[in-house]
TrEMBL record, chain A:
This is Inner-membrane translocator. The chain crosses the membrane at residues 16-37, 44-64, 70-89, 101-122, 142-162, 183-213, 225-252, 264-296. One of its GO terms (biological process) is amino acid transport. Signal peptide: none annotated. One of its GO terms (molecular function) is transmembrane transporter activity. It is a multi-pass membrane protein. GO terms for cellular component: plasma membrane. The keyword Transmembrane applies. It holds the Pfam family BPD_transp_2. InterPro entries: ABC_transp_permease (IPR001851), BCAA_transport_permease (IPR052157). PANTHER family: ABC TRANSPORTER ATP-BINDING PROTEIN, BRANCHED-CHAIN AMINO ACID TRANSPORT SYSTEM PERMEASE PROTEIN LIVH. Belongs to the binding-protein-dependent transport system permease family. LivHM subfamily. The lineage of its organism: Bacteria, Pseudomonadati, Pseudomonadota, Alphaproteobacteria, Hyphomicrobiales. It is found in: Cell membrane.
From TrEMBL, chain B:
It comes from Mesorhizobium alhagi CCNWXJ12-2. This is ABC transporter related protein. It holds the Pfam family BCA_ABC_TP_C. The keyword Transmembrane helix does not apply. The lineage of its organism: Bacteria, Pseudomonadati, Pseudomonadota, Alphaproteobacteria, Hyphomicrobiales. One of its GO terms (molecular function) is ATP binding.
Automatic annotation (TrEMBL), chain C:
The chain crosses the membrane at residues 36-56, 63-80, 100-119, 126-149, 169-192, 223-241, 261-285, 297-320. It comes from the Bacteria. Coiled coil: none annotated. It is found in: Cell membrane. One of its GO terms (cellular component) is plasma membrane. Keywords: Cell membrane, Membrane, Transmembrane, Transmembrane helix. InterPro entries: ABC_transp_permease, LivM-like. It comes from Mesorhizobium alhagi CCNWXJ12-2. This is Inner-membrane translocator. It holds the Pfam family BPD_transp_2. GO terms for molecular function: branched-chain amino acid transmembrane transporter activity. It is a multi-pass membrane protein. Its main location: membrane.
Length: 306, 249, 326
């Protein structure tokens, strides 16, 4: 096991974590501000991926596709918020779960209707193709590094947005006191729509970025959504910082677990049993980590105040 | 002097920079009504929550019937005999008044892990519960869902539930709140008789009721008890008049 | 007789009449459809202990449904192949007897539910929903990555397991077995709902603070309800495995967890027969819409959205009016 391989796995874990962060940030923001649990967040991820793949195929440009993914996911988010979601803010979580579950069914089938059941493929843009040399003689995909970079940019941007801008001030006020924000003369409906659209756009961005690494298909969003849930449960619901820490933790744990556990068990159980036992355990690892964290910190690592 | 039923020693609780409870000590003696008064935001409800177990204090002791109950949860403290009413009525809204009281009777009788016998046909539950409703004047409203009771009736139901627990001490958080003069007078008379069943720690804003009922009064200001004494002592206390009754010296 | 009770009797009669009519008409497929209704209803009755009585929105009950299915599948595959499942402390060759499988399915489901519940119930609200979902997903991925019992491909039950004294291979017989179990579970639900335990559980749903203030700790009550709930859903899983003669990880999937909740809501939350009405409606949708269009889930989504937004009482709510609580 070379250093190069370990560095590569670490970066893979980081890239996976960044992608989870893009999903989790939107979810946690929407929950923190509006108190809404949104299962359909995975649909925005899927919409982003499909929009990027379709537009990139039509125009030949990944970048136009990427812009389209942001636009499509934000538009879908706005539409859904106005048509459905805003009726759910005052409902209990069960109603929110069911209505957004219904939205998953609708979005998934509608996408299948539009694009068929076969997966689409999206090419990595030529500028980011190829690999970069890393210390230790390793080579790493430039595109994955770019994803990590984008994730860092988004994290910084979100931090700036929330702590330094008027919109962020309103978001923070909305978290703590709906009445106060209404008294400030802010149209709370518009604010909620904007936050929802922002979350959707981040999910769409994640979908588009990952679309070039995997196939783009219906149902791609929900496994990621559930991992994003694990992330925000670990991080503390409502906390962007928690989402970032949780996402990187889950990304690294999952990637390194899948890499190391089969090797580890091979030492004890021999190659055949060891590999399967290790792989099975690795598939459960992040949930075990989640359970352990919750056993000691039921509100997650960075519990939101109040 | 008789051993206090409930004894709080140097209780402290901060929320960030705010010292909500700042070294509070007080006793509740057998047979007394001990009123806790103070301006809004003095930390009265926070103190009640700490006694009842909903908020964990940063430090200090809560001794109930000779036992330190500081590590126990809300339910365990209630089972040991702390009967509590809430500042804002807290009931099972879909259950009838009777079933709300039956829940307390059920708890008092022990295990809730009984899966088969229908509660509504269980006289050992319905009869004591009905008796409590009668005592509090709610018998005619027994089958009305709690959500449909009037504000005053809900306050009465709170008391009936607390009574049904057969408590060794009552923690009543503003039982008169929003009752209207007539309701307050009736409740004052009722509480007056209650002190012989179990002593009452009474948080109340209605000063007429406090002065009529209290054997002793403690005044809480900014998380500190600035005075404890009889009604006359408190009325005459200069610091209390300044800090609380708002009089200029 | 209240209107709701009349509707309940009607639903029970309808479900029983369906396979009988199918038999008379020689349309055996409809017997399978009715059996599927009964089994899904049973699974949802299980969930209803946690969700309807306790207000515990478990988005992970597919875990117990699937575990029940896998327990039946695994035990019977060992019995069929005559391979020992384990050989210490004694040799165990599984079983192909339904009562044994049911008991095992309920027991294992309950045993898995206990730690999951103990961790999840330390939290509430959205946390609880997400954590139960995550744990179910964990078991789903485990089933996929563990190759011994078929992994991603699932596990077949070659011959339907047997029940002493009857021939379960006859579709109507197997329907009746499932139907009786459903009625038994409904009776249990009604008993528990009206019991002391049920009173505490429902009070905890309405107002947790109140429950604790009268001296009943919500955690243990809820953990017991969650475990009972899992056991019954696990029993339904064992039956579904026998109906399909096949178990696969899809029984453990998050969609299945969602569907179980949907069954309750379609029928009517907080109703004894809500799961039955919901399961009948759901299987009917699946069959009718599925026959009309490949995209039936799209329309299911629209219907569900409509129910949540505009008809929160579900089918029984629409038919029987507002729920009464004693």
């Amino acid at each position: 096991m070379s250093t190069a391989l370990i560095i590569e796995q670490l970066l893979n874990g980081l890239q996976f974590g960044v992608m989870l962060f893009l999903m989790a940030a939107g979810l946690t923001l929407i929950f923190g501000v509006m108190g809404l649990i949104n299962l359909a967040h995975g649909s925005f991820y899927m919409i982003g991926a499909f929009a990027c793949a379709a537009v990139a195929a039509a125009t030949g440009s990944f970048w136009i596709g990427l812009a389209a993914s942001l636009a499509a996911a934000a538009a879908a988010g706005t539409l859904v918020e106005v048509a459905v979601i805003r009726r759910l803010y005052d409902r209990d979580h069960l109603d929110q779960v069911l209505a957004t579950f219904a939205l998953i069914l609708i979005f998934s089938e509608a996408t299948r209707w539009l694009f068929g059941s076969f997966p689409l493929y999206l090419d990595i843009p030529p500028v980011l193709a190829g690999a970069v040399a890393l210390p230790g003689g390793a080579h790493y995909q430039l595109y994955r590094l770019a994803i990590i970079g984008i994730g860092v940019l988004v994290a910084v941007g979100l931090y700036y947005l929330i702590s330094r801008t008027r919109l962020g001030m309103r978001i923070r006020a909305g978290e703590s006191d709906r009445e106060m924000i209404a008294a400030l003369g802010v149209d709370i409906g518009t604010l909620y729509t904007m936050v929802f659209a922002l979350g959707a756009a981040l999910a769409g961005l994640a979908g588009a970025l990952v679309g070039a690494l995997q196939s783009v298909q219906v149902g791609m969003g929900e496994p990621v959504l559930i991992l994003a849930f694990v992330v925000i449960v670990i991080g503390g619901i409502g906390s962007i910082k928690g989402a970032l820490v949780g996402a990187v933790l889950v990304g690294l744990t999952d990637t390194l677990g899948r890499f190391l556990l089969p090797k580890l068990f091979t030492v004890f159980l021999g190659p055949a049993d060891g590999a399967t036992t290790g792989a099975a355990l690795a598939s459960m690892l992040i949930y075990i980590v989640m359970a352990l964290i919750l056993a000691f910190r039921p509100k997650g690592l960075f519990p939101a105040t109040a | 002097m008789a051993e206090p039923v409930l004894s709080i020693r140097d209780l402290r609780k901060s929320f960030g920079a705010l010292k909500a409870t700042d070294g509070v000590s007080l006793d509740l003696r057998p047979g007394e009504i001990h009123a806790l008064i103070g301006p809004n935001g003095a930390g009265k409800t926070t103190l009640i929550h700490q006694i009842a177990g909903g908020i964990t204090p940063d430090s200090g002791e809560i001794i109930f019937l000779g036992e330190d109950i500081g590590a126990l949860g809300v339910a365990a403290r209630a089972r040991r005999g702390l009967g509590r009413s809430f500042q804002i009525s807290s009931l099972a809204p879909e259950f009838s008044a009777l079933r709300n009281v039956m829940l307390a009777v059920q708890s008092r009788q022990g295990s809730s892990f009984r899966f088969f016998r229908p509660v509504m046909r269980d006289l050992s539950l319905t009869e004591p519960a009905m008796a409590m409703l009668e005592r509090t004047g709610l018998a005619s409203r027994a089958n009305v869902p709690a959500a449909e009771l009037s504000h005053g009736e809900r306050r009465q139901l709170e008391i009936a539930i607390a009574l049904a627990l057969g408590p060794k001490a009552f923690l009543l958080d503003e039982p008169m709140a929003g009752m209207g003069p007539e309701g307050s007078r009736a409740l004052t008379g009722f509480l007056d008789g209650l002190r012989h069943e179990a002593p009452i720690l009474l948080v109340e804003h209605d000063m007429d009721a406090v002065f009529a009922l209290a054997d002793r009064i403690s005044v809480l200001v900014y998380g500190r008890i600035i005075a404890t004494g009889t009604v006359d002592e408190i009325r005459g206390d200069a610091e209390v008049r300044r800090a609380y009754l708002g009089e200029q010296p | 007789m209240s209107r709701e009770r009349a509707i309940n009797l009607l639903l029970a009669a309808l479900l029983l009449a369906m396979p009988l009519a199918a038999l008379a008409l020689g349309e055996l497929f409809y017997i399978t459809l009715a059996t599927r209704m009964a089994i899904l209803a049973l699974a949802a009755v299980g969930l209803n202990f946690a969700l309807g009585l306790g207000g515990l929105v478990s988005f992970g009950h597919a875990a117990f449904f699937g575990i029940g299915g896998y327990v039946a599948g695994i035990l019977s595959s060992h019995a069929f192949n005559q391979t020992p499942m384990f050989s210490w402390p004694f040799e165990f060759f599984g079983s192909d007897q339904m009562p044994t499988l049911w008991l095992a399915a309920m027991l294992i489901s309950a045993l898995v539910a206990l730690p999951i519940g103990a961790i999840s119930l330390r939290t509430a609200g959205v946390y609880f929903i997400m954590i139960t979902l995550a744990f179910a997903q964990m078991i789903y991925y485990f089933a996929i990555s563990w190759p011994a019992y078929g992994g991603e491909d699932g596990l077949s039950i070659v011959v339907r397991n047997s029940f002493p004294g009857v021939n379960t291979a006859v579709p109507l017989t197997f329907f009746l077995v499932s139907y009786v179990l459903l009625l038994a579970a409904l009776a249990l639900f009604a008993l528990v709902r009206d019991s002391r335990f049920g009173a505490a559980l429902q009070a905890g749903r309405q107002n947790e603070t109140r429950l604790a203030a009268v001296g009943i700790a919500p955690f243990r009550i809820r953990l017991a309800a969650f475990t009972i709930s899992a056991a019954i859903t696990g029993l339904a899983g064992a039956l579904l495995a026998d109906l399909n003669r096949f178990v696969s990880p899809s029984m453990l999937s998050w969609q299945m967890s969602g569907e179980l909740i949907v069954l309750i809501i379609l029928g009517g939350t907080g109703r004894l027969f809500g799961p039955v009405a919901g399961a009948m409606l759901f299987v009917l949708f699946e069959f009718v819409l599925g026959g009309l269009t490949e995209r039936w889930q799209f329309f299911l989504g629209l219907i569900l959205l409509g129910v949540v937004l505009f008809a929160r009482g579900g089918l029984i709510g629409v038919l029987a009016g507002k729920a009464r609580h004693g």
